[in-house]
Automatic annotation (TrEMBL):
<dbReference type="Pfam" id="PF00480">
    <property type="entry name" value="ROK"/>
</dbReference>
<comment type="similarity">
    <text>Belongs to the ROK (NagC/XylR) family.</text>
</comment>
<dbReference type="InterPro" id="IPR000600">
    <property type="entry name" value="ROK"/>
</dbReference>
<dbReference type="InterPro" id="IPR043129">
    <property type="entry name" value="ATPase_NBD"/>
</dbReference>
<dbReference type="GO" id="GO:0016740">
    <property type="term" value="F:transferase activity"/>
</dbReference>
<keyword id="KW-0808">Transferase</keyword>
<dbReference type="InterPro" id="IPR049874">
    <property type="entry name" value="ROK_cs"/>
</dbReference>
<protein>
    <submittedName>
        <fullName>Kanosamine 6-kinase</fullName>
        <ecNumber>2.7.1.179</ecNumber>
    </submittedName>
</protein>
Length: 321
C-alpha cells in the first residue's frame, strides 16, 4: 500500500467515503465535516485473482471506515468496470475474471449506501465543478482511456448512462486492435500499454511508461516522437468533439496523462491546425485534480448522491457546492 495519510477522528453524521476502483490501483478518501481525514492508494497485486482482489478491496474499505470512526453516510465509487444495476461487473477488459462478480459485496460491511458511477464520467464532473466550466471534455489516460462530457452545465450520460466513452472513438481504422474488439480506438493507440509499445518500437529498447515520462522530461528524441504520436491521435478525437459538443475546455488527466506534462500543449497545437475559420477551439490544459479526478468525482457522488448524475444543472443556484 502507498500514499497513506490517515488522521483518525470520531465518527461524524456527515462522514462519507470516496473510492476509485481503477485498472492498476484503488484510491480511497474519507471525508468528515468537509475535510479529508484519510487517504490511501492501494496497488492491485501483480498476478492476483478476482477473489483476492475482492478481499483486498473489502479490507481497504474497512480501514477507511475505521478512520471515520463510524459508518459513513454514503460511499461513492468511481468504477473502471461497467457495473450493472445489481452491483455485478458486466465487463472489465483489463480484469476479465471479475465479470459476473459482485463489486458491491466488498462494501457490504460498511453500513453505508453505496453508489457507483463511471470513473471518467465522475472525473469530468469533478473537473467541471472545480473549474466552473459549463462545457468541458475530460480525457483520462492510464491503464485505459476514459472520458467525461459536460455540456451546458449538465453531464452527458446518454440513453444507457455510459456516454462519453472517448477511448473508443476510432482515430486510426488501420491501427492496432482494441481490447473491445474494434481496430484503431483511441485507447488502443494512447493507453499506457500502447504508448509503452510505441516508445519501445521508436527507441529500439524495451521501454516502460515510467521511462517514457522520464524521456519526455529530458526531451529525448524517441520520447518526443511518442509524445507527438499521442498528441496527433488525441487531437483527431477532439476534432470530432469540437464539432459535436463544442466544449470550451478540455482537461487531460489520469495517471499517465497527468505525468506527461507537455501533452496538453502539444494537443492544443495540433488541434489549432485543424480549426475552421470563425469557429473557436477549446482551451486544452491539464486536469486540475491531476491523476485524482475520478477520486474527486467519487467524493462528490458520496457527498451529494445521484442528483448530480441525473441531468441536473451542475451550477444551478440551489445545487450543492
Amino acid at each position: 500500500m502507498t500514499g497513506t495519510r490517515p488522521r483518525t477522528r470520531p465518527g461524524t453524521a456527515d462522514g462519507v467515503l470516496a473510492v476509485d476502483v481503477g485498472g492498476t490501483k484503488l484510491a480511497l478518501r474519507a471525508v468528515a465535516a468537509g475535510a479529508a481525514v484519510y487517504e490511501r492508494t492501494v496497488l492491485w497485486p501483480v498476478g492476483g485473482d478476482a477473489g483476492g482482489e475482492s478481499e483486498l478491496l473489502e479490507a481497504s474499505v474497512a480501514e477507511a471506515v475505521g478512520a471515520l470512526g463510524g459508518a459513513p453516510v454514503r460511499i461513492g465509487v468511481a468504477a473502471a468496470p461497467n457495473v450493472g444495476a445489481d452491483g455485478s461487473v458486466v465487463s472489465w477488459p483489463n480484469r476479465p475474471d471479475w465479470v459476473g462478480r459482485s463489486l458491491s459485496a466488498p462494501f457490504a460491511g460498511s453500513g453505508a449506501e453505496v453508489l457507483f458511477g463511471d470513473d471518467a464520467t465522475l472525473a469530468g464532473l469533478a473537473e467541471a465543478r472545480s473549474t466552473g466550466s459549463r462545457d468541458l471534455v475530460y480525457l483520462g489516460i492510464g491503464t485505459g482511456v476514459g472520458g467525461g462530457l459536460v455540456s451546458g452545465g449538465r453531464l452527458l450520460t446518454g440513453a444507457w448512462g455510459t456516454a462519453g466513452e472517448l477511448g473508443h472513438l476510432v482515430v486510426d481504422p488501420q491501427g492496432p486492435r482494441c481490447r473491445c474488439g474494434t481496430r484503431g480506438c483511441l485507447q488502443a493507440v494512447v493507453s499506457a500499454e500502447a504508448l509503452a509499445a510505441h516508445a519501445t518500437a521508436t527507441r529500439g529498447l524495451p521501454t516502460t511508461t515510467a521511462e517514457l515520462v522520464a524521456g519526455v522530461d529530458r526531451a529525448e528524441p524517441w520520447a518526443e516522437r511518442t509524445l507527438d504520436h499521442a498528441a496527433d491521435s488525441i487531437a483527431r478525437a477532439l476534432r470530432v468533439l469540437v464539432e459535436l459538443v463544442q466544449p470550451a475546455h478540455v482537461r487531460i488527466g489520469g495517471g499517465l496523462g497527468a505525468a506527461l506534462a507537455p501533452l496538453p500543449r502539444r494537443v492544443a497545437r495540433r488541434l489549432s491546425a485543424t480549426a475552421r475559420p470563425g469557429r473557436p477551439l477549446p482551451e486544452v490544459g491539464p486536469a486540475v485534480h491531476g491523476a485524482h479526478s475520478s477520486l474527486a468525482g467519487a467524493a462528490l457522488l458520496a457527498a451529494h448522491g445521484t442528483s448530480l448524475l441525473g441531468g441536473a444543472d451542475l451550477f444551478h443556484e440551489g445545487s450543492p457546492s
